[in-house]
Amino acid sequence: MSADNYHMLEELGSGSFGVVYRALDKRTGQAVAVKHIDLEGSDDDIREIQQEISLLSTCHSAYVTNYLDSFVRGVKLWIVMEYLGGGSCLDLIKPGPMEEKYIAIIMRELLQGLDYLHSTGKIHRDIKAANILLSEDGRVKIADFGVAAQLTNIKSQRLTFVGTPFWMAPEVIQEAGYDFHADIWSLGITAMEMAMGEPPRSDVHPMKVLFLIPKEKPPRLEGSQYSKELKDFVALCLNKDPDRRPSAKALLKHSFIRRAGKTEQLQELVQKAKAFENGSVRERDVRYYEETLRDVTLEDADDDWVFSTIRPSASIRQPSYARSTIKRPKLDRIPSEDETDRGAALAMQGMSLKSAPLGDFSTPGDCTPTKEPSTIRTPKVRSNDARKISSATSRKISVSSPTARRTSVRQASGATPTARRVSGQPKQPLGLDMSFGNGASTVRMFKRVSSDDNHDNSKPSSASQFQIGSPQDSVFDADAENRPPPQQQHRLPPAPVVAATKESILGRRTYAKCIEPALQEAQATTADRTNREALSRVAEAWSRLDELDPEGELLLLKGMLERISADPKLAAALLPQPDLRAHQSPTKKASMISTSTTSTLVNPDSAEILSTSSPSKLSSSSAPRRNSELLPSSPPKPQQQHLTPTKQPSQISHTRDPSSPGKLVLNPQNPHLKKLRCSQQFAPQPEQLSPERERGLPGGKQEPGMEHVGFVAEALYGRWAEGLRGRWGVMG
Amino acid sequence: MSKFVGPDGQTAKNEEELAKHISLVKVTLQGTPEVEADQQTVFALVSAILAEGLLPLLVDHIHRLPFEARKDTQTIISNVFRFRSPGSTSSEPDALREVIRKQPEIIIALCKGYERRESASPCGGILKEALKWDAVAAVILYDEPLPDGKTVDIYNDVDTSAPASGRGVFWSFFGWIDKSSFEVSADAFDTFRLLLTKHKPLVAQYIGTNFDLFFERYNDVLIRSESYVTKRQSIKLLGEVLLDRQFYEVMTRYVDSGDNLKLIMWQLKDDRRMVQYEGFHVFKIFAANPNKSYEVQKFLIMNKQRLLKFLPNFLADRTDDDQFNDEKAWLVKAIGNLPDSTAALTPPSQQSSAGMGAQQAQAQVRS
């Protein structure tokens, strides 16, 4: 295996979609940089990554980071590149702005690189100091081809809105078609960045910068500290008319470039930057490569599908949770003092991968544009975020299959928690159906289920942990009824006290599902060592309590919850308000449908979920789905009839949008959705079909007892139906 | 105009010389960012390249050229394939049509570029652009090894109802995708995907004729591949193809098969999440089919309780994926509504009245 050719060393950093390590090629002894991309961590098409690789692999220049190899190992893609130990140009200007003599050298090397790229039909589209790497001996190389474009025809233009705002050329922002000259603009901005330490307008919000660049006069380097040549060079690059911007080749003849010295001079700069980093920043801690251990999820034989012999369904045993008894690595993995901060942080991250859902909370932050100049890609501006989200969540799962088998449903953003609880309820799919239609009992039923699942959710922040108890709650009683004891016993780590009473079982459960994961999450998200130590002491103490006295544990938690709910301010902050309303006024459910999606989605009937939620999807993500086709075809449910279709979209999208930022981000990336969106345009309206035709179409006929299939089946087959009509006279 | 030396028996100096010439031809054909190519010269050059039979030479030896010359060669061939003489009205560009009519073996040779790492990317690049034209797809699909060593002439030799032998170049893609290094495999898969999805009526007819062979290879080589990337991408592509209206007949036949259902159900139990996820999008098609075959109904019913236990927790972390959760909820309900025992199932022979639509569809395809 190719991976065995490399001896992995320390981590160099982590980029938009991968961690980069230094490594040695065992065959040559040569130092290389190896980027690991977790393919499981992203819904994205592997194609995008492949395109970057194919672009890189067709670059062969002394001025471009050299691609060496790529291969897949397990679910990780390894990309092997030449190792550049001098850091990026951004590192070089961290100590302060760069002297002109250095800028001239770097610019000359960059122009050589751009000339190469442009002559081979490539546009980099993200030239900036951070993407320029240096070797220790001062060679300068263009790096990061994540958004680069390969033109099939040298004369063709691009439209894609891509790059990093501060460095983007006006014609790129205006999306009016651009070519190689866009890189020259970014180069001019990069020259200013190196001379001033920051790109122009760096104090402006990046989104606002996008308006300013095309509107305002191009930035100029001003001040007597800069030479006339540099100012002129910058001014030439920053011409708003791309056609009047010189090519890379032409700029190589500029007087500022011609006077540039040898690249060896840059070694001083590299040394200076290294000294600066070592001196001012706290000791950079080294993280070493660790082979990720994947849980081998050996399914219980009993869980395997059965295709040969017919067993009566009664013989299928109660779900065995044997796999869940595997104790997740936790407190014992809390780093001891001798580990460095970052090492510890890594260890904690590793832990959180197995247990704590970090992804959801970090999402909103990821979505809001920050001053951090992160590269924009369209449509990848979303995919970037989506990647982060999905990598956090699905990586967690990929290593924790045993836990996933529990009801590990989490509230993503509070938007539709109840709906998920429904689908996450593993034991009583039929029970849910029985309760359907009985307004009051439905809600109560779900209240139990949902609070139960809140345990399962193990939402790790203290806030959501306490969601389990609302004032009038009888969570714990309900819980014991819902879950057969053996299951908990399996799930518990071996403990001195056998949980026998209802209370002690619940105590155990509380610990396993809420407290322990919450503590782990807190650990994982706490960077400060002192704080983490304190946390780990709490964790230890609590685990002791759980071992000895699960009943007391439960009482303690109950007491806490009661006090929280007694205090209006705390209750408001910590307890889920929408749920409360739903609980308090179950009979008002119908009237709440129009204002709160949450309560609407409580309804277990999937058809109803589909029909109420699809309009909001239409409006909020402008991504019509197949579900929306259900609207005309599925008969409205009685308790929903007051909902006029025109009323739904705005209201529901209002209630949903702000609370679920992840939706807009993720869904357009769903490859299946993309495809649907395209085909949707051609989707026939089922009611347009004449009745005779409908009878002839698949989906039109239903066997007795199979009517339920009709809803989605009709939607699924609707599109096919159109094709049939077109081509088969038979059907008409 | 083209001072070509055959790329055989090159010394290092020859190689350099050759690379220079190739680069020159490239610049003449496409110009530079600064200088527009001269149309008359281009016309003359393209004619010369075709007349002197340079294309097969270039394609056959592309792997032996130096790095930049390989890319230049790609540009040259792509430019030739793109070339249209002024006033031309044919669907394909003139030079490409010439090639398809008279030298279709060039297209086949380009596919075989996937046999080598050096030639995979340039040949793949040319192919992907040329696949814009359905004639190119047809050349690849209907390629058969002929006793006289010639390449099938798609305009005269093709009988769309005759089953393929499985030895044509199209069938080699399965192996290239499964067995090659990541770069080559991913490139070959990209071309394969384009081939299947770009000219759907053509491909639907082809798969219809070669249904069993196609899915035997697809299931065995791609879906059961050891390679994570191949497996994941091929399940996804399968889902896309099946859900496409133009592949309706293919879909109805596919979802009738209990073996296909079994294979997909095992994918739901794969230990890699994205494989499960892509598998789900195929599995739902089986469940949504209102006219399930006896076999499919039987398997679903036999596993009803297991599915009802399995599905609610299936990929439960995809909380942000509303569409997925909606579909999953629906699926749970649909399966919950299946009968508990296979006893009540109508045996295959008496089922005909139940599923008119799909039955007719199959009848059409099978007739």
What does this entry show, briefly?
The complex is a heterodimer of chains A (732) and B (367). With 732 residues, chain A is of the alpha+beta class. In chain B, helix 1 crosses helix 2 and helix 10 (182-198) runs parallel beside helix 13.
Structure description:
The complex is a heterodimer of chains A (732) and B (367). Chain A is of the alpha+beta class and 732 residues long. Chain A has 34 helices and eleven strands. In chain A, strands 1-2-3-5-4 form a five-stranded antiparallel beta sheet, with helices on one face. A two-stranded antiparallel ribbon of chain A has the order 6-9. In chain A, α15 (417-424) crosses α17 (439-457), α17 packs across α21 (502-525) and α22 crosses α23 (550-566). Mean pLDDT of chain A is 62; it is low at 293-299, 310-372, 378-496, 578-712 and 719-732. With 367 residues, chain B is mainly α. Chain B has a domain at 1-103. Chain B has 20 helices and no strands.
Low-pLDDT runs of chain A: 293-299, 310-372, 378-496, 578-712, 719-732
**In sequence order, what are the helices and strands of chain B, one letter per element?**
HHHHHHHHHHHHHHHHHHHH
Please report which band the strand proportion of chain B falls in: under 5%, 5-15%, 15-25%, 25-35%, 35-45% or over 45%. under 5%
Give the end-to-end Cα distance of chain B, rounded to a whole number of Å: 56 Å
Low-confidence sequence ranges of chain B: 1-10, 350-367
Main beta-sheet strand count, sense and barrel state of chain A? 5 strands, antiparallel
Query: Helix coverage percent of residues of chain B?
Result: 55-70%
The pair of chains with the biggest contact is:
A-B, 124 and 97 residues
The secondary structure category of chain B is mainly alpha
Number of helices of chain A: 34
Number of helices of chain B: 20
Number of strand elements of chain A? 11
Q: What Rg of chain A is obtained from the alpha carbons, in whole angstroms?
A: 30 Å
- Mean pLDDT reading of chain A: 62
Class from secondary-structure proportions of chain A = alpha+beta
The largest sheet of chain B, given as strand count, sense and whether it forms a barrel, is:
none
What spatial order of strands do you see in the largest sheet of chain A?
A: 1-2-3-5-4
Binding site for ATP (chain A): 35
Main location (chain A): cytoplasm
Protein name (chain A): non-specific serine/threonine protein kinase
EC number (chain A): 2.7.11.1
